[in-house]
Amino acid sequence: DDRFHKIAKGIIDRCAEVGFLYPDTDRPGKLNQNTIELVERAILRKARQCVSGYGAEDFSVRHDVIYQSRDNGSSDRAVASLLKPVAAGLSNHLYTLLSHEEIVSPRTVPLRDDMLYDSKWLRSPKTFMSGYWCQLHQAFQSKQSWLNRFELMAWIATVAYSSKYDEQVTQALLAIALSPSVSAAPLPSESAYDLSQGHEVQNTRLGSIADSAALSFDRTPAARLVPRPHEQGHQIANRRRQEYTNMKHKAGRLFEAELSLQWPCEHPHAPSDRDIASYIDTPKAMRSVVGEWKNWYDNREFCGYLANLTERIEEVPVDRSMVNGSFAQPTILPKSQSLGFVSVDDLLRHSQAPTTPTRSSLISKISRGRSTSSGEITKLIPLLDFLDDKAEPGFERRYLGELRQSLDSLKDYMSWELAQDHASALPMVFQEHLLQCETNVKSIYEALSNALNQIQQNIPAAIQQAIQNIRYRPRICPMFFLEQLRTSRWSALSKSWQDAIAQYGLAITALQQAKRLVSFCKDQADLVRELENSGHAGWRVHEYPEWLLLECESEIIIRQVQQQIARHMMQPPDDRNTSLQLNMGEGKSSVIVPIVASAQGDGSHLVRVVVAKPQSKQMYQMLVSKLAGFLDRPVYQLPFSRDIQLSESQAETIHKHVTRCMREGGVLLVQPEHLLSFQLMELECHADQKSRVAEKMVEIRQFFHESSTDVVDEIDENLSVKFELVYTVGQQRPIDHSPDRWRVIQEVLGLVFHS
Question: Which PANTHER family does the UniProt entry name for this protein (predicted)?
């Protein structure tokens, strides 16, 4: 697919654009620009054959131009060049071309399908003339309109386009097709012709036949010659043999001459000369001559047919009037430009969303919660009151206040455990629940698919059936419906479709949870933990559809505490910075950061994830696995350091880089060293009088300040006052008051030790 070439070019161009950020990495080679242009043309041409989501959107009219036709101008030379007189010896030329193969069934009409575009018409005329010439003549003689105008145009144009184009042959074919007087020429009567045998009597062939039919020596008068006086035996034998040779040769020449004098006639007569009959078996020779003679005579008749046809072509009148072919061509601009394909929006807009029924869960009563007893909580209240009387204002008061809040939360806390009356039947219940979830997912998917494939009232059924038969509609699959959960697609859906697709996503997460329950049957701790998380509590799918998409792709269910922390991060109290402490294994990197990034990365905010260098690689892999799949959110990096000799164009590239990240709803993964180095580089550029580069960096810093939302991992380390980055400038020199500043300390400590 040519689109892979375009994607590869985009990757190479992106690498070349930001390659200065990776000075130790090899630069990829550039692709041939001419090849890229051909690829773009190929993509544009194939776009009309693709469906929505698989290349149809690549169609564009930006390369279209108004056609400047060349037929409006008039030129005497051009008109004169159109006149192609019939060449002398056309019939002989046609005979030569037709001689390459045997002509069979000349009065059979060829199939019309054979006249469609085919590569055989682009070959030399000698490859197809023998098989089609007489048949084409027969077809047009039987019915002049055997081929309609457009079929004839396509066929003749193909023949004329051949690199071995013969204009005289093409003109003759066109005359047969268009001129009734030419096509009326009588066709030869035989059923087969072998024109390679010639159309004139061939004396050499007659001589060969005579030689092959010669009588043996014993049967000729030469064998009975009378011996001469005093002639010995070997002498008479030699004389008789010589006489046989001479007379046989003379008889062969007489045989050729007498038959040649009979040409042209259809049936030759055997020569009556006694000298011929004395040395040649005339009946045997004539049997061979008749077959050859018939070929020559039939070919002579065929040659006459070609001569007659050529004369008729020459007699076709030529219109010598000059017509001014120029005309005023009106400029017609389309009022509207349709997409040219059935888009996903069209499909969903013209389809009514189905109603998806909800089913009761079989596992709702398997686990039960137990709240903390009020007696246990009551025992702690006097202790807190006692500590409250003893506490000092400030930190101790604050600590006790948070401790009371924790005690209030303990009142609402419930611990979960399995119901003992269901313990033995758990495997069977979970298997039945899994089967129910599979059935539910399948039924919802079928309902969604049927809703898209149903016949619409406002569109003719024949048109809809034709669209289905040619498979021109978007491809329907489970991924098609899950893709609608993306933020870019969700807002375009109607409320009914949002409800139906959300129900499908929830059914998938329930199926995934059912599979986990089956696998946790023997692990009570994991089983209780899974049952404890009913899912989708505290947040609505319609508000955060990509969270549901993340659940489906990662096969997880966002726990309530995770969504609470995410909401607290997205909507901090008083819109101020906030810091949170999480326990190990609470899904900080795998769940909380991705859902915060997907919610905040709406195209108007840049989400920056700041991690220390040891965790950077793992965090990058985690973000790519969670965001770069179904959610289609790119993960960018900005590995900035002092090794980069920044120029104005490179600073502009960084600005475009981070702006593109925000526009695409991506995540910018950075390390504290990168941000600090970027700030120090700005100061260094000011100090080195690189004002234009410094101005660009100021713009980027202001962009970060105004548009970015930072998610900082391990803030106790990354925001520690001990964490700093220093750019050294100037020449290396000793520090102030060295070495006295440390020698004095050592001497004082030595005196203290001895005292």
Answer: PTHR13367:SF34, UBIQUITIN THIOESTERASE
